[in-house]
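To: structure desk
From: M.T.
Subject: fold request, one chain
Message: Could you run this one when you get a chance? Sequence is below, nothing fancy, just the single chain.
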Amino acid sequence: MKNYLAIVINRSSDQRRREHMEATLRRFKLNYRILKAVEGDELSDAILSQYNQGANEFGRNEIASSQSQIQAWREFLASSYEFCLVLEDDVLFWHEFEAFWGAFEVPKDRAEIWKLETVKATCTIVRDSVRQFNNIKFHQLLSNHCGAGSYLVNRKTAEFLVQVSSDFKIMTDNELFDPIHRNVPMCPILQAVPAPCIQDSEHSDSPLLATTLGDHRNLDRISRINITRRKYLSPLVSFVVSILLSYQGLKRIKIKNAPVGKVAEVAELVE
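Reply: Done. Structure tokens follow.
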């Protein structure tokens, strides 16, 4: 990838995660910038009212997390770079990420989001891949796969996202990657299979680097729900839906991650 900037969203108080990301990005020779995350007490009444409408009720930290993503797009557009890798600060990378990144090239004249992470969800994708780089294939994503820990945009995409962001009413990861609940039209999403990035909270049962962006969420409860759903419900649903979708050129697949270093090795990076 040429002429890019990696923007890492990080709260000022999260020094450990910042050090982890800086060590990781230096290891893979990525050009990066640390973006100070928006804090809940910095939000205007207008922004709070934009999200808290009708039955919606979001906490300040959750809204601040979404505003941080939007701020990353704006900072990218204020630069001279053609592409931007947006990262949250607890991302783990495929151990061959440097080779993948060296081969990774995407169009700059189309509004598309290239999603590099997984939350280990089972998703509907177009069967035929769009492109392949070092064993990582990209398929158009058609179903919900929320999570905004690692994705790439070009300037055309960032301009589009900033334009529609004033109509966001739910969290940014839902607006981007949840076609059922989003409130805005969205450009195509290209999903990496397997994903070269994963957040520590999804990778480890005992994450050392779990992000605090939007930290009012009940992560333990969400995790238990997801584990139960994935263990008992997802396989059955995937089997039935796969049969129905197969003749349409689509398929259901669990988005796995490419091998990353052990969490203990991540800890060594910041010591």
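Reply (cont.): The mean pLDDT is 86. Let me know if you need anything else for the meeting.
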